[in-house]
Amino acid sequence: MTRQQARVYIACGLALMGLGFAISGPSVPNFWLWMTLPGIMIAGGIIRLLFRS
Fold it and tell me: CA nearest 15: which of 37, 46, 32?
């Protein structure tokens, strides 16, 4: 993953998280699924930006 791709991962992860929140809302059973999977994308992008030069 390049540094540019890391930024895209973070931006897309945030967009997916917002979409998931808008679609499901916090009261449905699959809410944490909508939050976890984009969260993994965001974490991967942040780790790439912080720990690889």
Answer: 37
Helix (H, G, I), strand (E, B) or coil at 30: coil
Give me the number of domains the chain comprises: 1
In terms of residue numbers, what domain contains 27? Answer: 3-51
- What's the CA gap between 24 and 19, in Å, rounded? 8
Per-residue model confidence as pLDDT tens digits over 36-45: 889 999 999 9
Least confident of 5-9, 13-17, 22-26, 42-46: 22-26
Q: Which of 48, 29, 51 is nearest to 40 (CA)?
A: 48
